[in-house]
Amino acid sequence: IKIMSEQQQQLLNDDENNKSDIDFVEIKKVEEYGIPDSASTMCYDSISKLLAISTTTGQVKIYGGHGVETTLNVTNTIIKWLSFLFGKGLLLCVTNTNLIIIFDIQTGREVRTSHLNEKISSVDFVSSCDFVIFGTHLGTIKIFDTKRITFAPIEIDLSNSHSVNDGAIPKVTAVSLHPTHGNLILVGFNTSIII
């Protein structure tokens, strides 16, 4: 709410002496608070106690303790996956155009941007070993190294080994590091095959 100065009020009073004080209050939208109604995904950092919510308009709202709130303007596309990179002060965003953006949450600046030529169909962040595992619609697994902030030279191509009877390439629908064997990756396909 903006209150007019005494000079502005005096100018208006000269023209209209019989107006009430309420006529001198001008209401404008200055800031937006709260959770956006166009939320597309969210993540929580239990160490920093931060909640990030992305919108369908390409913004990420980050909420912390009382009065802590900021907005990152990422892109004009839908963000389909978010993850805090624990202990690093970084936020990883994946858009529906397969753009991978890493933000420094203290400065709000982009640290790294990468683009995959394949459609990203699943993601898993493995905080214990600093990797993000990406599954694609072409049946491949790609590994992103969060220490070096770049893709690792490892790529696992599973497209030929698990094709269905009609020869169609199965899409990776879920990836996850095995909970008890850290050197194994669980991969789920749209053909109901899990390896």
Structure in words:
- The protein is mainly β.
- Helices cover 5% and strands 46% of the residues.
- The protein is built from one helix and 16 strands.
- The protein has one helix at 6-15, and strands spanning 2-3, 25-26, 39-45, 50-55, 59-63, 69-73, 79-85, 90-95, 99-104, 110-115, 120-126, 131-136, 140-145, 150-157, 172-177, 185-189.
- The strands form five sheets. Strands 3-4-5-6 form a four-stranded antiparallel beta sheet, with no helix packed on it. A four-stranded antiparallel beta sheet has the order 7-8-9-10, with no helix packed on it. The protein has a four-stranded antiparallel beta sheet with strand order 11-12-13-14, with no helix packed on it.
- Strand 8 (90-95) and strand 9 (99-104) form a beta hairpin.
- The longest helix has 10 residues, at 6-15.
- The relative contact order is 0.09.
